[in-house]
Amino acid sequence: LVYMDHAATTFIKQEVVETMLPFLKDHFGNPSSLYSIGREGKEAVETAREKLAKALGASPEEIYFTSGGTESDNWAVKGTAFARRKKGKHIITIPIEHHAVLYPCKYLETKGFDVTYLPVDEYGLVDPAELEAAIREDTILISVMYANNEIGTIEPILEIGKVAGEHGVPFHTDAVQAIGNFSLDLKGKDRDVNMLSLSAHKFYGPKGIGALYIREGTEIDSYIHGGAQEKRKRAGTENVAGIAGMGKAIELATANIEKHAEKIRKMRDRLRKGIMEIPHCRLNGHPERRLPGNLNFSFEYIEGESLLLMLDQMGICSSTGSACSSGSLDPSHVLSAIGVPPEIAQGSLRLTLGDANTEEDVDYVLEVLPQVVEKLRAISPFYKPSDVCEK
Amino acid sequence: LVYMDHAATTFIKQEVVETMLPFLKDHFGNPSSLYSIGREGKEAVETAREKLAKALGASPEEIYFTSGGTESDNWAVKGTAFARRKKGKHIITIPIEHHAVLYPCKYLETKGFDVTYLPVDEYGLVDPAELEAAIREDTILISVMYANNEIGTIEPILEIGKVAGEHGVPFHTDAVQAIGNFSLDLKGKDRDVNMLSLSAHKFYGPKGIGALYIREGTEIDSYIHGGAQEKRKRAGTENVAGIAGMGKAIELATANIEKHAEKIRKMRDRLRKGIMEIPHCRLNGHPERRLPGNLNFSFEYIEGESLLLMLDQMGICSSTGSACSSGSLDPSHVLSAIGVPPEIAQGSLRLTLGDANTEEDVDYVLEVLPQVVEKLRAISPFYKPSDVCEK
Amino acid sequence: VYNKKVMDHFMNPRNVGEIENADGIGEAGNPHGDQMKIFLKIRDNRIEDVKFKTFGCAAAIASSSMATEMIKGKTLEEAWELTDEAVAEALEGLPPGKLECSVVSREATHRAINDYRKKQGLEPLEEKT
Ligand SMILES: Cc1ncc(COP(=O)(O)O)c(C=O)c1O
Ligand SMILES: Cc1ncc(COP(=O)(O)O)c(C=O)c1O
Ligand code: FES
Ligand code: FES
Predict the structure, then answer these.
(1) Is residue A216 in a domain?
(2) Chain A residue whose CA is closest to B69
(3) Above 70 in pLDDT, residue A366?
(4) What percentage of chain B exceeds 90 in pLDDT?
(5) B26-53 tens-digit pLDDT
(6) Proximal ligand: closest to the CA of B350
(7) Are residues A188 and A311 located together in one domain of the fold?
(8) Are B145 and B155 a contacting pair, CB within 8 Å?
(9) Inter-chain contact B242–A208, Cβ cutoff 8 Å?
(10) Contact between A379 and C54 using a beta-carbon 8 Å cutoff
């Protein structure tokens, strides 16, 4: 099996599973308990918090555990909006955010908030000057993702942070796809970020666990109320095994990050080069400023779900932004926002490389993909073999 | 080690861990993916949903996975309140609810909602007639727990449901402590319940996973917005391992429920009888209508945290409602609400029995507890050995 | 997601291609931008040969393949009776939400038959919905 869908989720590293197991077995105590058997859980939670803080260049007190990237995004967006309602009602974000940011924004619109979806360019990039121009007196939050999950585009986070900081607007970034690909330093270069979301299952940790970094002094409401966990900011008995696993996972994912990213990038680039030889295909997203493992192509005359399923039959796991695959009428909101016409977005294929991949995987995909594309084009009513390639 | 804190959390059953493991190892696919490797996760999620539905007498479509009891309670209370805001702003609950219900209610009060905290009697029981009298034209939700986590009192859920149903008010019940102790039948006797919260780590499943039952047709907003998971009602990549574990756990916990409850109740009753011999102790909660494994005593002249820690030193895990243990000024809100004076609530001890216990555990606690109580009283300035026991 | 039968017709679609100088050609699409084109060779009121091309999901491709199998050799009257349900049933079921993907095969078939009728100077039949 060739797994090229690391942006969807990753396998869990062996050491991570081993870190989790004791908390599924003997160390089952409730971290809130006072007696010894709860203490191991408590310690595991605090150790993980330190590991996350270290990996992000943050303080442990600024790390809050959640049930995943989606909850982190919801909390950051809605928690800030409600906490700062008296100061204003304007939020700036971009149309290529994950739904975990977009839908909370849509929800806030129904509650009287004003949201600007700042257009991005054909590569998905935000222009910091345009962002600055969009800031109003009543802007209470800017949310721009670190890197896009579909097309891999890396946003100019430092510049955006600077603009936000200069105008005193809190800045949230969804870094779910960034962890393990870039070094973050929230006390250093990333010091203008006020909130940052992450999710363990994107960096070889378990599903259903994530965190929100909240810089000290940030105004934000609790989102899940109840017990006194997480300094009363996020209630609920802790998913101790998940938290411990995430701690281990981030430690592993951020050790030697440059070398790791370089290795993935190399494989990715060879794959990209090979795929570009297929006629009538175009790369979506930025040619250079993209996640090291990300490739997103559109193959004209082909529908993406079919392509994905044929690849699956050949043992290759991939992803698509086609409307057919999602059961909705419109193809990927990200491809639409960067101006890819619907009929071409229909034929999109995302391949995301990671630790599960080897050079042999690249060879195999380069062998299989052109055949599958050919086969699907042969049955496409739109395709005329005489057409010329337009790269 | 004698673990008598099953109401705080339980160990995870071996079969449950085994059900989880494949999803931490080989079957790591994202359930939302279209290709084969995601399908196993998807199937595991749906199998668990069916098991939950079966255990509750519900339809699988009415089960929504969450990150635990706290999130389920937050969702039920706030999701209903916001969805029905146009119909009214009045909510009825009781002061002995878990904080996961109470704090969302407090939060709603800051958003213009009106909450009635209906007083309970000295045992913690709600009077359904009083509840009926409290219903107003603009009442949009009633939330009353199935059974209390501190004093074990079982509320008259069927009667409350009937009243709620007759007045057309949606009824939520926090059944976190009830699962595995009572048979639920949401299509039968419990048909007046509209929403029900549960949490896996209270019935020998993992922490950080729970569910909200939402009867078809119930008006409720999404609380976590984003991807299309859970029929677009609860976004976020699923905690597949946790969900699979919870499915197994509820199956095990609800097989042979009467026999199991009877066994626990017997041990509990022997322990109760023995403890009642200690002078100046009183049982909190209802003498009969209580969870089979629950005991909650107040030992006069003693402070609960000290008691708990001394018991811990002797290898007994327990819990207390003392203010000292929580770092807050007031002892347990539950004990206060049933009229236990603060100085007596300070000396409370909760012992909750479950599958980890044997008759030997009961013997051991009966041997150790009187000595520890004695020892602490000997250093208490309030205690005069001449006082007589008032049972 | 899809059963074995659907996957078989998707991976090995029958009757793919075009017919030169076809007697009837029909085309149908849906709002996703999915498209099917069908070519009929007709002799003595019977569908002697049929070919198709489809742009769409696996359900659309498998339905096209199955629909062409079902009408091949049939009289035009018989072929007109083709329904979405019959195609889905012959495929042993389609996942929820994918039932409408078989609609294009039925529509394209009807249009091809009408195209033929027009060429013969006959009134087109009224398409069912
Ligand atoms: C950019 C981005 N944000 C948020 C999420 C949601 O995180 P989770 O899957 O943990 O709910 C994802 C992953 O699906 C993502 O790629
Ligand atoms: C009655 C009750 N409700 C809610 C909860 C919260 O559930 P969780 O621990 O899964 O957040 C608990 C447990 O602490 C409980 O006992
Ligand atoms: S053809 Fe688009 S969903 Fe089937
Ligand atoms: S005496 Fe120390 S907290 Fe109460």
Answers:
(1) yes
(2) A236
(3) yes
(4) 92
(5) 999 999 888 778 889 999 999 999 999 9
(6) 2
(7) no
(8) yes
(9) yes
(10) yes
Q: Please give the tally of structural domains in chain B.
A: 2
User: Among all chains, which residue has been given the structure tokens 């769409």?
Assistant: C56
Q: What residues of C are in contact with residue A313 (Cβ under 8 Å)?
A: 7, 11
Best residue among A45, A66, A67, A237 to mutate for probing ligand 2's pocket (most ligand atoms within 8 Å of CB) is A237
Q: What phi, psi does A84 have (nearest 5°)?
A: -105, 15
Q: Which of A189, A187, A188, A190 is nearest to A172 (CA)?
A: A190
> B67, B237, B239: which to mutate for ligand 1, most atoms within 8 A of CB?
B237
| Domain identity same for A241 and A149 | yes
CA of B66 to the centre of ligand 2 (A): 12
**Which residue, among A384, A25, A11, A46, has the nearest Cα to A229 in the 3D structure?**
A46
C-alpha of residue A151 to centroid of ligand 1, in Å = 14
Domain that holds residue B133: 14-254
Q: Domain containing B93 — which CATH number?
A: 3.40.640.10
Separation of C34 CA from ligand 3 center, angstroms?
A: 6
Report DSSP state, residue A124: S
Chain A interface includes C72 (CB < 8 A)? no
Predicted confidence band at C121 (pLDDT cuts at 50, 70, 90)?
very high
What is the percent of chain A where pLDDT is above 90?
93
The residue whose two tokens read 């490739």 is A295
Do A91 and A216 form a contact (C-beta atoms < 8 A)? no
Does residue B388 register a pLDDT over 60? Answer: no
Per-residue pLDDT tens over the stretch C51-79:
999 999 999 999 999 999 999 999 999 99
A5 domain residue, yes or no: no
pLDDT tens readout for residues B127-148? 999 999 999 999 999 999 999 9
* Spacing of C-alpha B267 from chain mean position: 21
**DSSP class per residue in B109-145:** HHTT-EEEE----TTS---HHHHHHH--TTEEEEE--
Over pLDDT 70: what percentage of chain B? Answer: 98
Same domain, yes or no: A55 and A103: yes
- pLDDT tens string A306-344: 999 999 999 999 999 998 887 777 899 999 999 999 989
> Are A171 and A203 found together in one domain?
yes
3-state class (DSSP) for residue A317:
strand
Parallel, antiparallel, or unpaired: how do β-strands B294-299 and B281-283 relate?
A: antiparallel
Contact at CB, A235 and B28, closer than 8 angstroms: no
Same domain, A88 and A176: yes
Test C61 with A380 for CB contact under 8 angstroms.
no
- Calculate the CA B127 to chain-centre distance: 20
Domain identity same for B356 and B231: no
Q: Which residue reads 């300094």 in tokens?
A: A231
The response to whether residue C101 sits with its C-beta less than 6 Å from ligand 3 reads yes
Q: Given B254, B281, B300, which residue is the final one in a domain?
A: B254
Helix, strand, coil percent values for chain A (each to nearest 5): 40, 15, 45
| pLDDT, tens digit (0-9, with 9 covering 90-100), for B233-251 | 999 999 999 999 999 999 9
Taking contacts as CB-CB distances below 8 angstroms, the residues of chain A near B107 are: 222, 225
Q: Give SS3 for C125.
A: coil
Regarding whether A354 and A343 lie in a shared domain, the answer is yes
Helices A36-56 & A14-24 angle (0-180, nearest 10): 150
For the Cβ of C36 lying below 6 angstroms from any atom of ligand 3, the answer is no
Give the orientation angle of helix B304-313 with respect to helix B359-378, to 10 degrees. 130
Percent of chain C with pLDDT over 90: 84
Catalytic site residue B324?
yes
- CATH for C4-119, among 2.102.10.10, 3.40.50.880, 3.40.190.170, 3.90.1010.10? 3.90.1010.10
Q: Which ranges of chain B would DSSP assign to H, the alpha helix? A: 14-20, 36-56, 69-74, 80-83, 99-110, 128-134, 157-166, 240-254, 257-275, 304-313, 323-326, 333-337, 342-345, 359-378
Q: State which of A227, A254, A281 marks the end of a domain.
A: A254
